[in-house]
Amino acid sequence: MEKALQGMKILDFTRVYSGPYCTMLLADLGADVIKVEAVGKGDDTRHFAPIKNGQSGYYLYLNRSKKSITLDLKSEQGKKIALELAKWADVIIENFSPGTMQRLKLDYEEIKKVNPEVVYASISGFGQTGPYRNKVAYDAVAQAMGGWTNLTGFPGQVPARVGPAISDAATGVHTAVAILAAVYYKQATGKGQYIDIAMMDTVFSMLENAVSIKTLLGESPQRIGNSNPSSAPYNMYQTKDSYIVIATANDGLFTKLIHVMGQPDLIKEERFATNPARKANQKALDDIIENWTKQYTNAEIEAWLDEARVPVASLKSIDQLVEDPQIEVRQMLIEQDCPNVGKVKFPGNPIKLSQTPPDTSTRAPMLGEHTEEILKNILSYNDETIKSLKQKNII
Amino acid sequence: MEKALQGMKILDFTRVYSGPYCTMLLADLGADVIKVEAVGKGDDTRHFAPIKNGQSGYYLYLNRSKKSITLDLKSEQGKKIALELAKWADVIIENFSPGTMQRLKLDYEEIKKVNPEVVYASISGFGQTGPYRNKVAYDAVAQAMGGWTNLTGFPGQVPARVGPAISDAATGVHTAVAILAAVYYKQATGKGQYIDIAMMDTVFSMLENAVSIKTLLGESPQRIGNSNPSSAPYNMYQTKDSYIVIATANDGLFTKLIHVMGQPDLIKEERFATNPARKANQKALDDIIENWTKQYTNAEIEAWLDEARVPVASLKSIDQLVEDPQIEVRQMLIEQDCPNVGKVKFPGNPIKLSQTPPDTSTRAPMLGEHTEEILKNILSYNDETIKSLKQKNII
User: Fold this and answer.
1) Shortest CB distance from A351 goes to which of B136, B177, B189?
2) Which of A158, A178, A189, B337: CA 20 to 30 A from B258?
3) CA B239/CA B296 separation, integer angstroms
4) Which residues of chain A lie closer than 8 angstroms to B153, CB-CB?
């Protein structure tokens, strides 16, 4: 099978989530990704939940399609190997705290000396510049500092962060765009460059119209739960068995909805006759709708409204998603045979290319699984040297 | 200034958010983006809030760096112009409902006949295949169907979608990766291809470890508010003036925290001595911490904990973010001079490349602002033909 990024060589110093998500997307698309891990310990996520028989599902999901080499980056010989691999690479990526790669003498300025054309990407919580540069960033911190958390949840109640650590994934995929754009430029001009991606920047750039509401009108966007600032009915409603999202933004969709509800005269009432009127009387309207939704199951309501082409959604649980027919048809749940745990399913790759589909057939590496192969085949080390490096715990 | 994607030609049929976010990222990086809009009406978001003096901040933010041509795609002459531009393009992108481009005879199969090497990307709610293909998708629908909403909010309470429409933005940036990977492949092989990106796929791929918790252990991930499934204290706490996020995941960080709190002996209590013990007694511990945080302002607590290098975050409001020193240093708030509204600030581009930084100097186009220029310069139409097309409302 041909792959889109065949021939692209990436040296990957990233750990945990943002960087590994980025390089997983690129590795599935065919890039040759060598992941550098700490000797004896590896990426922190090798010890993150869920763990079964010593294997972490966290690590296994985010590191498929990559090769693993262990290296002690603090030793002179480990550093030397890292520099030799840096010469081999088209792209280098790291997500240590700002300053760490400088201390290891593996920062862009050092690497440029041996590989002037390299594309070198750094991911951090707040970027390599600015007053927050050294602030400690977890996903919950980035979501809050970038503006998502304050806008998520219900008015007058405690705000909520998004459950999964999506600021990490979002930052990873923006970094992938940055890398591919820099490689495009390198192919055209022969020039490499440095990429500086911040989680806070990424979160801030994904605020839809919230910033322009402030800068254009001077208004301060607030939390509004599941409702819509200018349309009704547009909310989440209780059903017989769960909650359901129903979203209408104009008279046409509202008319379809009330026909399904068997209350087609609602639009004749002045208070519900137009979208602005419905928004002004949202509470009364939401109550009428919830009185209806409470009588039925999600499956019933969703079938009726899908048929009428009214935007509707069930809140899919993970239990439901792993059995979902759309997820299956879209190949968004792939299966891999992994040491100690056997066949396990993971999310697939959403980047669906017709000619060069993402290849998710190669499971994540065990710690240092490719150390010898890489040292022999890429750097031409002999068995004796490798043995000696092992004895000294450098690999 | 040199730009990373200089020379890349993109014909953009997208509207609203997912597609426009994708092409904004690429246009800032130097791609030549021609946005096709409906005659007299344009992208729906030209009428989305915030509106001032007839200008929409929603549209202005997401369409900078692009050119606008108006075309009646249902007319034969409009279709002919679209096909001529499709010949010019390296990349075509659209986000209509599945089937619409087929009905317009502007789908990949048709375009391939005039431009066999084209990279053609479609974005939709659920993809071009599968049982949900024709389901109507709004961002709230995609967030719910892909699994985010059910995992966001508090146990036993109504779940919450993320305030801003981030499933659109996330889908847009994954599409940008797909496009750049396909262009890389095209440069290597001369072959174009079709890209099929779904919002539900994207949301599902950004669930961190939630899927593998189910598939590896058989457990069902649930909403846990702002807490952490395996660490404490790790939550959001009320302060004198707002809420604050404090996140510790090990004894070291906890020890630093309780020293700042002036209660260094807490770790000597058996119930708080280890991370598992703290998690088991989370409620009692969170109460102690909140009793402390309530006495101080966010500014005070954040300064103390930053100093101690304990992960801490204020929930930045939009009012705060537009004055934030980090956002300023990172050039994440750019200013543009726009017709009728003067100078307005918008979020900048988070893809920071050192050699070819994103160029955000060109404001979004007025409706059809570049129609004549494009017809003359790219398609060599003469004044008379353009006049006649205008009279017939084809442009």
Assistant:
1) B177
2) A158
3) 6
4) 153, 160
Checking if the pLDDT of B227 tops 80, the result is yes
List all residues 6 or more positions away from B189 whose beta carbon is below 8 Å from its beta carbon: A2
How many helices and strands (H and E) does chain B possess?
A: 17, 13
Residue A132 with chain B: CB contacts under 8 Å: 326
Q: Is B275 or A331 the better-scoring residue by pLDDT?
A: A331
ipTM: 0.97
Amino acid type, A371? T
Q: Do A201 and B245 touch (CB under 8 A)?
A: no
Q: Characterise B359 by phi-psi region: left (phi > 0), alpha (psi -120 to 50), beta (else).
A: beta
pLDDT in tens, B358-370: 999 999 999 999 9
Q: In whole angstroms, what is the distance from residue A37 CA to residue A59 CA?
A: 12
B220 and A319 within 8 Å at the Cβ level: the answer is yes
pLDDT, averaged across chain B: 97
Q: Do the beta carbons of residue A90 and residue A118 sit within 8 Å? A: yes
Torsion on CA atoms A71, A76, A80, A81, rounded to nearest 10: -20
Best of A212, A332, A349 to disrupt the B interface by mutation (most B CBs within 10 Å)?
A: A212
Q: Which of A55, A208, A353 sits opposite B165 (nearest CB)?
A: A208
Residue with tokens 């958390």: A149
- CB under 8 Å to A59, separation ≥6 — which residues? A42, A43, A45, A46, A48, A364
Give the C-alpha separation, A86 to B85, whole Å. Answer: 42
Residue A389 Cα, gap to closest chain B Cα (Å): 32
Q: Which residues have CB under 8 Å from B197's CB, separation 6+?
A: A350, A351, A352, B121, B122, B123, B124, B127, B171, B174, B175, B178
Taking CA–CA distances from B303, the nearest residue in chain A reads A135
Of residues B107, B139, B168, B286, which has the active-site annotation? B168
What is the sign of the dihedral through the CA atoms of B170, B173, B179 and B183? negative
Report pLDDT digits (tens) over B64-104: 999 999 999 999 999 999 999 999 999 999 999 999 999 99
- Residue B189 contacts residue B119 (beta carbons within 8 Å): no
Answer whether B58 sits within 8 Å of A214, measured CB to CB.
no
Q: Which residues contact B322 (CB under 8 A, 6 or more apart)?
A: A211, A214, A215, B333, B345
Minimal CA separation from A265 to chain B, in Å: 24
Residue A11 pairs with which residues in a beta bridge?
A34, A92
First to last CA, chain B: 33
